[in-house]
Amino acid sequence: MIKALGIFLLGLFSVALSSCPNHCNSHGVCDKYGRCTCDAEYQGADCSERICPFGHAWSDVATATDVAHAEAECSNRGICNRKNGKCKCMAGFSGSSCERLDCKDQCNDRGICYSMKDFAGRTRNELSQQFTYTSRWDNDKIKGCQCDYPATGYDCSQSLCPVGDDPLTPSQVNEVQLIHCASTAGSFVLYYNGVPSKSIPFTANAAMVRAALEAIPQITEVKVTFSQSHGTICQIKPNVVSVEFTQQFGPLNPLVPVLDSAFDASGGLLEISADGRTTFADVTGQRFSSVKGSKESTVCANRGLCDLKDGVCGCYDTNGDVYGSSNGYGKAGPRGDCGFVVSSSEEKGVTTCPGLLQCSGHGVCEDSTFQCHCSAGWFGGDCSLMQCPQGQTWFGYPTADESAHLDYATCSNMGTCDTRTGRCECREGFYGEACQYMACGGPQGNPCNGHGRCMTMAELALWADKNGDATEYEYGSDPNNFATWDYDRVHGCYCDPGYSGYDCSLKDCPVGDDAGTYHDASEIQILQCVANTGNFTLSFRQQVTPYLQ
Question: Where does the record locate the signal sequence feature (predicted)?
Fold first, then answer.
């Protein structure tokens, strides 16, 4: 009887030892020591807490020199809800793991929201070049807007005003680009400012070429002339095609051809001259030269102020000189560009620069053209607008394969410029005079909730450790390493002891040895000292003892 009772009590003791808290909430396996081994996506002593999705951290401490942005819960830009496993992201960030920087207001339905990778892969830059951006940590994380013409701004909330030729600068010429093509098959498109024309077959006539080019939103009108008027664009006997831009002024970016496979297979040739020097000869031997445009292409033709809200020029009417919409050639017309002198205060014409006070007191008036040359920090036809600071872009087209964020833009393409004050109005989550910094988590004016320090990626690297010991890791020390472009721009919190979270808003619980583990051993380190005099210190995880004798 006593033996049976002992076996029974031993059984109860074994059951007690192997009983896990809350039976692991049916989200784990209970081992013989009474510990839960949780299923994926669960954690905690009783597997009651959900794990949130991980993504490449927006900011973190480097794990080696120039190595950072490791996988982190909620990408270090959100707090995990342990009940449902969903991240609550910092304003402006989205995705299941807060891994994306959203397009502001989804580009206001006036553009396409692209990741950096897709922007590079699906579009071209203003010179119609194409580069890749697939290997950098931010290639799928930072998103931005490609605005539909004429929308503009980092969020496409503004509208471009018409540009035009200054009516008081005579003896200027339109741009003329030349096409020299020879092929027996296929077709091609011509890119202008990164936007493709309609497809042009090798048998196209002048009218077809004109229609294809005018399908590009940034091209209003072109005049297309064949040196052999009854020929085709790619006839074998050379036919030089002249494309005169009659409504796009100034020196322009060249047309860039992209050939289809049939054109390539035919062994055809297609050349463009847009430099004002290169000449092409046609079948008669006559040579033709391209012409660089010399007209101005300035906002409101330098004779009005642009209202970016609606993209309308407010033409100047100061000092008795009144300007209006032109045809691009100094006469009245529909361009909306203020390039027409409606009336002037003097019979002989305009004799003063714009502004109630010439050039608004912020520039010098050129007597020959009555153009204002603005002082530093000012712009506009009357020098009445204040420039905002520029910074390296957060979102923009790569400057080479796998190289981005190097170009400069007003407010770093992450804010709008208030031209009355010359100050950038940054989108939430960014700050700096040019919106050049990504902010730390926490309320505005109280980064890291007062429980940590807001640091750049370069500064965070200085706090890297291995098992508590300091390292010599650096981040961004090489200015030619494009992979660490963010070293002084992306900021993150380094929390005080006892706090955690991307914004240092969470209090850490004490840590200790698991009472349900067995056969553990405490670490023992042995020190042997042999000396006749002097003293020394001991350090452990960057803490140092007083001098020991």
Answer: 1-18
Rounded to whole angstroms, how far apart are CA atoms 190 and 195? 8
Contact 8, 15 (CB under 8 A): no
pLDDT, one tens digit per residue, over 434-484 is: 999 999 999 989 999 999 999 999 999 999 999 988 999 999 999 899 999
Nearest 5°: CA angle at 495, between 465 and 425? 120
Q: For the chain, how far is it from start to end, CA to CA, in angstroms?
A: 66
**The Cα angle at residue 196 between residues 195 and 198, in degrees rounded to 5:** 145
For residue 525, list its beta bridge partners: none
Tokens of 59: 């900011």
Length in residues, the chain:
549
Q: Is 403 exposed, middle or buried (0-12, 13-18, 19+ CB in 10 A)?
A: middle
The verdict on pTM exceeding 0.85 is: yes
Place of tokens 């890297």: 464
The structure tokens listed for 10 are 């031993």
User: Would you say 151 and 352 are in contact if contact means Cβ atoms under 8 Å apart?
Assistant: no
* Residue pair 468/541 in contact by the 8 Å Cβ criterion: yes
Report domain extents, the chain.
2-50, 176-289, 296-386
Question: Nearest-CA neighbor of 38 among 46, 28, 48?
Answer: 28
Q: What angle (nearest 5°) sits at the alpha carbon of residue 38, between those of residues 35 and 43?
A: 100
> Which residue has 């784990």 as its token pair?
28
Structure tokens at 257: 């051809």
